[in-house]
């Protein structure tokens, strides 16, 4: 593994759903750089069956507690699909920079992304407060 890259783990179901989302959503609307970043993430991730994913891995619809590396501020975020995104209440799209930065990481990892303004951001994943698979939901 290259220095600076973090291994990501995705469930097979999340992987398939995200590939389908990208195929439907690719329309050259200015988010193509972010779509490419998610495609690269999908290509480089380790895949596991939903029933075998570790409970400390961020999967789709996981609710995570993160701490901003620069400010120390803590936030609770839920990783979701674009149709369910409501950033003001903590529902972040997997196609957003912060969403794709979180996907597949483990508790203790640091997610890194660039804001639309070009600022570099980083947050440590302190805890997973809810993960569908850990709760027995393998089809969410």
Automatic annotation (TrEMBL):
Membrane-crossing residue ranges in chain numbering: none
Residues of the Transcription elongation factor GreA/GreB C-terminal domain: 55-128
Any Gene Ontology biological process: DNA-templated transcription elongation
GO molecular function, one term: RNA polymerase binding
InterPro entries for this protein: GreA/GreB_C_sf, Tscrpt_elong_fac_GreA/B_C, Tscrpt_elong_fac_GreA/B_fam
Pfam families: GreA_GreB (PF01272)
Coiled coil feature spans: none
Keywords: Elongation factor, Protein biosynthesis
SUPFAM superfamilies in alphabetical order: FKBP-like
Protein name: GreA/GreB family elongation factor
Organism: Aquincola agrisoli
Organismal lineage: Bacteria, Pseudomonadati, Pseudomonadota, Betaproteobacteria, Burkholderiales
């Amino acid at each position: 593994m290259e220095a600076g890259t973090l291994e990501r783990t995705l469930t097979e179901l999340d992987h398939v759903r995200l590939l389908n989302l990208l195929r439907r959503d690719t329309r050259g609307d200015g988010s193509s750089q972010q779509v490419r970043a998610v495609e690269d993430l999908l290509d480089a991730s380790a895949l596991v069956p939903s029933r075998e994913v570790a409970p400390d891995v961020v999967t789709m619809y996981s609710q995570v507690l993160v701490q901003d590396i620069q400010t120390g501020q803590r936030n609770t975020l839920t990783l979701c699909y674009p149709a369910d995104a409501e950033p003001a209440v903590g529902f972040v799209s997997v196609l957003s920079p912060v969403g794709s930065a979180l996907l597949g990481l483990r508790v203790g990892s640091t997610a890194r992304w660039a804001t639309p303004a070009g600022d570099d951001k980083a947050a440590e994943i302190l805890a997973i407060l809810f993960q569908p698979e850990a709760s027995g939901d393998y089809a969410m």
